[in-house]
Automatic annotation (TrEMBL):
The organism of origin for this protein: Lacrimispora xylanolytica
Keyword Glycosyltransferase among UniProt keywords: yes
Domain (Glycosyl hydrolase 94 catalytic): residue spans on this chain: 318-456, 616-804
Glycosyl hydrolase 94 supersandwich domain: residues covered: 58-296
Methyltransferase among keywords: no
Keywords, sorted A to Z: Glycosyltransferase, Transferase
Pfam families linked to this entry: GH94_b-supersand (PF06165), Glyco_hydro_94 (PF17167)
Protein name stated in the entry: Cellobiose phosphorylase
Length: 903
């Protein structure tokens, strides 16, 4: 069993997907509709945590619940057929030779299921889409064809449960909240408008209506089943609804009203006489409105086949244009797989890390890392608007270097935790710099560092160690100065604070404390004595990178900077302090105490060269400290970096009485940061291959089996080994391992890490997922938590900027390809189409001598057939030249690779 990718846009087709458990597909739009749909049309639809139209589902509900977007067809007044396969008799035949064939066809935000019953003599097609045009509605087109040689009388009845409230009520006051429902029928559907939202902390008047409507160009429903209990009847259920087994349908007419019950989108259409090969069509709209009028306006304009088809085509075209990165290599399946990888960051911007069946934690929104990592992909596909997005995101940084952890729905909206729960992840200061640095290189916009924003303020203070009891919520969530004015600082100041404060917050081994966790949220039990060597290495890289940006500003004549006077204590010319753990803690405490409630508002002027020296000195100290203290060697002779200390103060990795302990994260960031020496790169790869690589589960596992429930490090060790953070192939870190290897010019090894993941995920027999990358691959090889993963952003960025080597350098376009010989097509070419500097480009690499990356370099560039000479290196095109190219057309850049070796 497998799917087949079609065309160049990632559309695919698959037979009998209903025989595989746990499959689901996203349907959504940027107006806030977030649906999931399974092959039998299970799943749910919602606008947010408190506005579920269909009953909320987790992964096990997909096969355990009877609820679905079910469509029934009564044939010749007696036989009942579920178009979704949800009848009891169809379920009973599902694994027999009498199973009805089912075919799935899907692409970005559109989904179609075709079911054929030779026994009944009918074929059904159910096409589902959420309009890209922004209406808050999910649409379904129902088509039933009479494939027999006889006339048939067909009657269609929908059975779509309307939950119409918060997911919190799935078990908390489920029945009581149904009492709030006010249900009414119209001439084309059923609406439910709860009177209030139920919350024992304070009930509120409800302002949202939900509905299911249906019809076609000439027909409206002839009646309704608006109440779920009436439809299933005494002793019935949604797979054997008693109403459909009665001699006549006791339906309600239009303008019927009731309340206090679970609602049903039960629409009954008149019986139709259908000739052989004839097809009948209906459109169903399941939607939301701010009022009943708004609901009907959202939904009823789609109730014709012409309107649905127009929406279907517009939506397909919209997402096709959004996913504007295309590859052509020697592996067309990989090229089409990359379409789905490119699409996934868009899904995460819509869904956050919630609202798909596996993602049943949290109540919506995105985390701090998501804000920054999702921007990586945007910079590759749709960089317009990213500048303001980054500026707004910096408003979540606290003056103590930590950040807000509750992120609002609006861009740049950060919310104080009213429960005052201390949350500090030690890696959070890493990501803003990495994304801002990429933005600067892609755009050349160093000026963003000199833009200003405010700082986030709540009760949490001194990096989560104390509370600011003077702060009151009514003061707002922005830091103020002694004059009670909102304080603002440059983006450069924000970045310096994040990275400098982290440098001083060290544990007993002089690495940065792990606090609540680092990137691996499941390392959450080492708050007192735990340290993250892995991310300490990345802070060194950030400090080094900040110095480089300051040097670039200096080259533009910007040599002095205004910074908050409080920051002065974090800068020092006495590098002996760096070895003094207690003194570092004192410096951090002194800084934090000065700004526990307000800042002075006073600025100091500091020269760029002094800042550079300070930052580079701190970075170099970290590099040397890690190199001298954290390289471990096993009894087997393998070497790698220890990345952690546990809450007992012990080194985590290396030989242990229970076996070798190694973690992939430790190697990723020591490689990526440049901490690992060139000689150590090969040693790390050998060790990772020996202890972490398992081809049968998709590549590099996150860690070896510790054979211990390690309560002094994190909850991950309570998970069964091979699942989630405990030893699964965790896609995000596996991809970052590939990225780190490419950065260190280990092309074959980097490609191997990325290819292993692609090879496994695209093998449906193993991964059991639709195209794309899941959060992780479990011990059996199944992909889990599909679609919403930062791995997709990193995969796309790695393929374009490292594998293809197409990336900006202070705004200029540079080429440093590391494509392997096998990745070129039969014409010895490989290409990537993308946007850069507001122009659509197709970059074609030519490798006529079939050389490997270590033996070729760029030699000769043509743009639209004209030879280009930059006056710099052969591998750079000046930004000004790109901008001078005409807009609104595709420009072809051809690049020859010759055999003179890497420069």
């Amino acid at each position: 069993m497998k799917y087949e990718l079609l065309g160049e846009q990632g559309d695919f087709i698959m037979e009998n997907p209903d025989l595989v458990s746990g499959l689901y597909f996203p349907l959504a739009n940027e107006a806030g509709v977030m649906s999931s749909i399974s092959p039998d049309l299970g799943g749910d639809s919602k606008m947010d945590q408190n506005s579920f139209l269909l009953p909320p589902v987790s992964i096990d509900n997909l096969h355990n619940d009877r609820s679905s977007r079910n469509i029934w067809c009564r044939i010749n007044g007696k036989e009942l057929w579920s178009l979704t396969g949800r009848s009891a008799w169809q379920q009973a035949k599902k694994f027999s030779r009498y199973k009805e064939p089912v075919v799935l066809e899907a692409g970005f935000m559109h989904h179609k299921i075709t079911r054929i019953s030779e026994e009944i003599g009918c074929k059904a097609e159910l096409s589902s889409v959420v309009p890209a045009t922004g209406e808050t509605v999910e649409l379904m087109k129902i088509q039933i064809q009479n494939i027999s040689n006889e006339y048939k009388n067909l009657q269609v009845i929908t059975a779509i449960p309307m939950y119409a409230r918060s997911a919190d009520n799935i078990r908390d006051h489920r029945h009581v909240t149904a009492l709030l429902h006010r249900i009414k029928t119209t001439d084309c559907g059923v609406m439910v408008t709860p009177t209030m939202t139920f919350d024992e902390r304070g009930h509120k008047r409800n302002d949202r209506s939900y509905g299911v409507f249906g019809g076609n160009e000439t027909q409206k429903p002839m009646g309704y089943y608006p109440v779920l209990g009436d439809f299933i009847g005494e002793g019935g259920n949604l797979e054997t609804p008693r109403a459909l087994f009665e001699s006549c349908l006791d339906v309600k007419g239009a303008n019927y009203e009731t309340g206090g019950y679970e609602a049903l989108g039960g629409l009954c259409f008149s019986e139709c006489r259908v000739a052989p090969q004839e097809t009948i069509t209906y459109v169903i709209a399941m939607g939301y409105g701010k009022s009943e009028k708004d609901l009907m306006e959202n939904c009823c304009g789609f109730l014709s086949e012409a309107a649905f088809d127009r929406c279907w085509n517009e939506t397909k075209e919209y997402w096709k244009e959004k996913v504007n990165v295309s590859l052509q290599t020697g592996d067309s399946e990989f090229d089409r797989f990359m379409k789905w990888v490119s699409f996934q960051p868009m899904l995460r911007r819509i869904y956050g890390c919630s609202f798909l069946p596996h993602h049943d934690y949290g109540k919506g929104g995105r985390g701090w890392r998501d804000l920054w990592q999702d921007c990586l992909a945007l910079l590759m596909m749709n960089p317009g608007g990213v500048r303001q997005m980054l500026l707004d995101h910096f408003g979540g940084v606290r003056f103590d270097g930590t950040n807000a952890t509750i992120i609002g729905s609006g861009q740049g909206e950060f919310i104080a935790d009213r429960n005052n729960i201390t949350r500090v992840w030690m890696d959070h200061g890493i990501w803003p710099f990495l994304t801002t640095e990429l933005y600067i290189h892609q755009t050349g916009d160093l000026g963003i560092l000199l833009e200003s924003n405010s700082y986030f303020k709540d009760m949490q203070a001194v990096r989560g160690e104390e509370k600011d009891t003077l702060w009151k919520p009514e003061e707002g969530e922005r830091l103020k100065d002694k004059e009670n004015h909102i304080y603002t600082g440059t983006i450069l100041e924000h970045l310096l604070i994040q990275n400098l404060t982290s440098f001083y917050e060290v544990g007993e081994h002089n690495h940065i404390r792990i606090r609540g966790a680092d990137w691996n949220d499941a390392l959450d039990l080492a708050n007192e004595r735990g340290e993250s060597v892995a991310f300490t290495a990345m802070y060194a890289s950030n400090l080094d990178g900040l110095a480089a940006l300051l040097a670039a500003l200096g080259a533009q004549g910007i040599n002095e900077f205004q910074l908050a006077e409080e920051i002065l204590v974090l800068l020092t010319e006495d590098e002996t302090i760096y070895d003094d753990i207690n003194r570092k803690k004192e410096i951090l405490a002194e800084y934090c105490k000065k700004s526990i409630h307000q800042v002075s508002g006073e600025k100091m002027t500091i020269r760029g060269d002094r800042l550079q020296k300070d930052l580079k000195g701190k970075a170099e100290w970290i590099y040397n400290h890690i190199r001298e203290t954290e390289w471990v060697t096993s009894k087997d002779g393998h070497g790698w970096y220890n990345g952690y200390y546990d809450n007992s103060g012990n080194k985590v990795e290396g030989d242990h009485e229970t076996g070798v302990r190694m973690m992939l994260t430790s190697q990723v960031f020591t490689l990526m940061s440049g901490t690992a020496t060139d000689d150590q790169v090969r040693e790390i790869v050998k060790s990772a291959n020996a202890y972490l690589y398992r081809r049968e589960v998709g590549g590099y596992r996150l860690n070896t089996d510790f054979h211990e429930v390690k309560m002094d490090l994190g909850r991950m060790f309570g998970f069964a080994y091979g699942h989630k953070e405990n030893g699964a192939v965790f896609s995000h870190m596996a991809v970052m391992f590939g990225n780190a290897l490419y950065r260190r010019q280990a092309s074959k090894e980097g490609y191997g890490a990325l290819f292993a993941l692609f090879d496994h995920c695209s093998d449906f027999e193993k991964s059991r997922i639709y195209p794309g990358i899941p959060e992780y691959i479990d011990a059996s090889g199944r992909g889990v938590y599909h679609y919403l993963t930062g791995a997709a952003s990193w995969y796309l960025v790695t393929v374009l900027t490292q594998m293809f080597g197409i990336r900006g350098y202070y705004g200029n376009l540079t080429f440093r390809p590391q494509l392997l010989k096998e990745q070129f097509d039969e014409n010895n070419q490989a290409s990537a189409s993308l946007e850069f500097a507001g122009r659509s480009l197709k970059i074609i690499y030519k490798n006529p001598d079939q050389l490997e990356p270590e033996t070729y370099q760029v030699h000769g560039i043509t743009i639209n057939g004209v030879s280009y000479q930059s006056g710099r290196q052969d591998s750079i095109i000046e930004r000004e030249h790109i901008i001078s190219l005409p807009e609104h057309q595709l420009h072809i850049i051809e690049i020859s690779l010759n055999g003179t070796g890497r420069d």
